[in-house]
Amino acid sequence: MENRAIVMTEIGHFEEKDVPMPKVKSGDVLVKIEYVGICGSDVHFFESGHCGASTCTVPFILGHEVAGTVIEVGENVTTHKVGDRVALEPGQTCGKCEFCKTGHYNLCEDVVFFATPPYDGALMKYVAYPAHMAFILPENVSTMEGALVEPLSVGIHAAMQGGVKLGSTVMVNGTGCIGLVTLLAAKAAGASQIIVSDVFNKRLEKAVSLGATHIINAAEEDVPGKVAEYTGGRGVDIVFETSGNIKSIGQTIDNVRRGGTVVMIGYSPADEVGYNFGKLIDKEVTIKSVFRYRNIYPTAIQAISSGSICIKNIVTHEFDFENSYEAFVSVSNNKQDVIKGVIKL
Q1: Comparing C-alpha atoms, which of 65, 101, 86 is closest to residue 132?
Q2: Residue 320 within a domain
Q3: At CA 290, angle to CA 288 and CA 294, rounded to 5?
Q4: Which residues lie closer than 8 Å to 130 by C-beta, 6 or more apart?
Q5: Residue 246's domain spans which residues?
Q6: pTM
Q7: Which of 63, 128, 144, 287 is most buried by its number of CB atoms within 10 A?
Q8: For residue 195, how far is the Cα from the chain centroid?
Q9: Domain count of the chain?
Q10: What is the mean pLDDT of residues 23-43?
């Protein structure tokens, strides 16, 4: 067997290259990767070399939404066998710090996370990975859906952070992948009214197909005015801000009800943005944030398997491994049309 990877040799440029076959250590499984999702963070690195506070140096390999089939089992692995189809949770944490020991391992600072500098991602043919982070997929969950467990876990974590329950009214700002998985998670948790805003009509149409009850084109309509109209002037229980748009962030305090919750998920281009803290205090609003997820993969897989969440419907484009460069260019240049792209190996 030979391993091949899509390597970013320059910012915005890929080459397919031979890379070493990974060594299977004790406790590892060797996985033949079958699907890699294209995440917004991958696109940021591809376009500029930056994402949030992270800066990559080339050569660099992208991809952290991955699933495939086990083809070799390392020593001391009793939970997996050859042929198991698995979704890889992309972060390996230290297991020793305060956050790991209290179950908040997503906050571990000593984490090795796919495609987060300085660590390469998994846009390659084969990956060796700890078995305990390779979650076995039920027979009725495909490896394409397995790759989407990663973004879905963000959405489920967001819904949990926001406290969505039966009958909740929620708003989701932004209909990229994370906005849509947050919509799906909120719907599955029992939200009865789901208002979604974006500036692209095609994305808003996709949101409706996934369960949005009301849509607002933020480029054409008065967003706080429409939210007030849809909620009888009350505002929503929970606002999920996934867009990162500065204006949208500022309007979260207008759209949430008194005593409600704002959940911040999307990164803004600016590290610091203005916010009406006077109104925040007057309305006694709770602000929470989301950084990745923790202890969510089994829940996400079960949600897909049971039919509670139909994750495959967020995919709009599929590309071949050999066309990875074209895939990233397409996602980067056609954000209105390419809502979620996946790469098939």
Answers
A1: 86
A2: yes
A3: 120
A4: 27, 28, 29, 92
A5: 155-289
A6: 0.96
A7: 63
A8: 20
A9: 2
A10: 97
